Amino acid sequence: MEIYKDRTKSFEERAHDLVMRMTVEERCEQLKFAAPAIERLGVEAYNWWNEGLHGVARAGVATMFPQAIGLAASFDDELLKTVAEVISIETRAKYNEYSKHGDRDIYKGLTLWSPNINIFRDPRWGRGHETYGEDPYLTARLGCAFVKGIQGDGENLRAAACAKHFAVHSGPEALRHEFDAVASPKDLEETYLPAFEALVREAKVEGVMGAYNRTNGEPCCGSEYLSEKLKEWGFDGYFVSDCWAIKDFHENHHVTATPEESAALALKNGCDVNCGSTYILVYKAYKDGLISEEEITSACEHLMRTRMRLGMFDETEYDGLDYTDVESPEHIAVSLEAARNACVLLKNDGILPLDASKIKTIGVVGPNAQSQRALMGNYHGTASRYVTVLEGIQNAFDGRVMFSEGCHLFRNKVEGLALPGDRIEEAVIVAEHSDVVVLCVGLDETLEGEQGDASNTDASGDKLTLHLPDPQRLLVKRVLEVGKPTVVVLLSGSSLNIETDKENALLQAFYPGSEGGRAIAEILFGKTSPSGKLPVTFYKDVEKLRDFTDYSMEDRTYRNEKPEDDNVLYPFGYGLSYGKVEVTNVSAAVEGDCVRASVTLKNSGRATKDVLEAYFKSGSKDAVRNHALCGFKKVCLGEGEQKTVEMNIPLSALTVVSDEGQRYLDKTAKTVIYFGTSQPDAQSETLTGRKCVGVEIRL
Q: What pTM was computed for the model?
């Protein structure tokens, strides 16, 4: 019996045996993302490219969840794992069915190129909503949960996750193919690499994707430094280039002279499979003496090992999954729950929740009120049904619901032959005839997203400002001037400033998925209490931000910003609920390799979920300027309920990083851990009306 067919052997042994039966040319062919079949060995054709950022994408119907930034707003790693389990079940189900029909096209495989764990360091970055926000600890915890949910814990991987984009990648989009992201050793270790290390070491992520840019001079898909980091962390999966990134080596980065040299540089530095076309020349590079047979063989073995782990040569426990498992009622229920948790209540003067018994007419206004696209985010799948904000309110409210689009998302008119502002007066009229107005504004993937995908060509998908497009700015002004009680629902993937404080309530819904309108309506009418927290800082404007191309973390994000700049609109970790949850008692001490904390929470308001957040402040000379997240836990509390929550904070989460990039636990410095439902900063205390409780820890 051939070893590669013997299930008693390890995946490594089987992969090695299989590759040894291939010719060198066949091995080279397997390094392309659309790998051909080798019929004599029973190797089926396979396309490595699939997407599963917040649902199976681009291959027909699948359950569509909130965009990643909305999932991050849940501050709930257990929910992230559940969402990922659903995504991988549907991935496997679709793969099984497509395979039966001989369909092995792009977006139909088991290797999902998700999650995106880059740090959302600057609110202008158009792709930031694909990430879990600005904090490396939150990103690592949510990313690990997502990977574990995708891959499962069976004998075979249910699907294979992929951590991207390695590394130091977060815009500008227009420069990514030629840009050199310069990062200090401290910033690398403190901010840009921790999530990748956690996903490799802890979650055993099967794939890693390199970024387009250079990092400190080396192209990320051919970087000796980054390759050595993966070896240091014990990575034993496969490495894939970002799509057509390797041709940037010679065309844009100019670190090589020819495509053959680019292919060789990438392969020598651990890039196993090329999303793109440069690896068509791997065999020629081999013949030219630029790469060795051993280097080709090693890459091919990595790829076959992943396919073995996925059970592509065996019967697996997942073979029974079929199309009845795609977008099932149970999976849609998870999407709805995720959408409920993705919404962040930023302001509420008491208008929410709405008392439907006292309202006869609700006016729903705005370009995102009846927009399916505003539910989606990018890298999205296709739901069989979308519940918009307007539809959610119509379904939940028995009274009259009036609607006006108000304006185009970004153009100055809706109808081509009309005068500018052709829907403004209708919006004003609807507001005048309503008891309450729900004003739905924001962006969608056409205005913020990946270069080439977004209509925002002026900035290649990035944002130039933090303001709404001009037509929406006028709409907000005119509707609020009517003077009716108004709730603004903001659907966007990132920080925006609506430039007014006249609204009665402000709900940030991000891109909430196919069930987003239902979840928003539940929150508006009090069936659900909002419980999301901001995974990014919301700023007033871009004027006081560092240059977009500057990758230094000095003055960036909540950990290092200057409070005296007075540029924060709403802080990281902030979000209101219909409850009133506060920490009343804390005990905490070091036990072994972690701090064991016992935290008592009391809710003096409505039943709600909330997030217990823990931040540490170190007096070390190497600490971040302010404080840093070191723990979080989603908690359910009934009306008037008091609950004691146990939280274990690893000592590794309390470390600091020197200028030389050395991470260590500073036992000589004063260390305080703050527990609350927000950051321990003055602005959060003002916005919430509650203080965090600090406990000094002896390390």
A: 0.98
